[in-house]
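A favour, since you know our structure tokens better than I do. Just paste the record in under my message, thanks.
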Amino acid sequence: MQNRAQGEKRLLREIQAIEEDSRHNPDPDVTAQLVHGDLRHWIGRIKGPVGTPYEGGYYFLDIAIPEEYPYVPPKMKFDTRVWHPNVSSQTGAICLDILKNEWSPALTIRTALLSVEALLAAPEPDDPQDAEVANLCKNHPEQHAAKARQWRDTYAADKNWPYEAKVKNLVDMGIPADRARAALQKQNWDVNAAANECFGDM
């Protein structure tokens, strides 16, 4: 129980540090938010590294944090589809040593996101998560880069957090943003249920 409390205290410090960084830098290379206020479930966002086919894209990752954190790594996968040899083009699973056997309690969620960003910039097709992508990367690098850019333009063009579109829907109905966000969280992000709650209170 004490370890769980210590882990959650650390997670709170980590998310506060990320939020503070975002206040000073409105478009950081990596950032994260809690999902529905849950310290054990985050959504991360990575900017596509400059000078790569991913540049200009915004890639979202689902981050599930186990009870044993920081002694075991977070579980990360891409929510945004990405064409990369070390990421499954089907499931978003990531092949990265620090998310497996090279994890250390000294690392943080932010450093893990930075490592994923570095992986986008320096793919390792000889240790692939997706064999089809790796083959194209090794044997036809120009075709690989073109497909990565195509997927970037198709899937990674929007930098807005997935839940913010739902908040905007309610704001467009005349509901204040703070009230809209609170109602959506209470109603598990169901727009219709949140709208009914807000208008029922008016």
Remarks:
- The chain has a mean pLDDT of 91.
- The radius of gyration is 19 Å.
